[in-house]
Predict the structure.
Amino acid sequence: MRLAPPVVVVHGGAGRWRTRGVDRERVLEVVAEAAHRGFTAAERGDALDAVVEAVRYMEDSGVLNAGMGSVLNLAGYVEMDAGVMDGARLRGAGVAAVRSVRNPVVLARVVLEHTDHVLMVGEGAERIAEFFALEKRGETPRRVLERYRELLKNLDRVPHWSRVREFARLYGVADTVGAVAMDRRGNLAAATSTGGVWLKLPGRVGDSPILGAGYYAENGAAAASATGLGEYIVVYQLCRRVVDLVKSGASAPEAAEEAMEGFTRMFGGGTAGVIVVDHHGYVAAAFNTEAMPRAVAAWNLPNPVAVFSREEKGF
Ligand code: ASP
């Protein structure tokens, strides 16, 4: 559908939601509210404000795999990744394997605004958070700790990390969050944030903080945010590919479908999803998993539209 700016699209991660007993209604509420907050931020500021605000809200929700709700690595602690890109300046920045900051997306924006770097990891990134007095992360929710203990019980069934597909089949890819936006001046922005994948090896970094893989935005073209198995998304450069397809004449829905078809041919089903807004105001979501909760807010929509699975009408 073609929408009037501001336009904000968010996702709550491509995955096998049905099998994990997630409260579907709560997730839909969270993505709808994130889109709404992003829209309000775009009205007051710009597309970059919109994606940071939408992702920050989802990080704080505790029900998605980012910020407060981040999954745990094999050693039992969080290592979060996030990235944000401003299509107007064609500049993006990511942070990876951060442990103590409450909102990795806010830290990514600080790296974007206050440094010339494109990716900061671990201790160096945490120091920037301290310098800018960013809020600290609270306790990991009980739901996440319980799930970790459950998964540990089956540790002998956990395939080695060289068997990425098998790992995805057993545990699913999970609830990463992302947002894309276009403001009234036509500026495009994208942001993505995640706790990564369950039981990842400590130090593992996925696609979410990698420019072109987990996020990408370019004025005059499109903005995209990806979710799914980072090991594949990095190889495929999913978000950059979607934006390049728009640059060569595709609409957001055509670009998203074409990129995901190629992705699925290469890596199989159940592996990824992507959301897009193009500079004409067309939006799209394409995924090869069972579901991908997502929502859109725009000037010509009375309320945000939030949908969960493939079958539901919406976008
Ligand atoms: N893309 C994320 C990662 O690999 C996971 C996800 O989207 O669920 O870190």
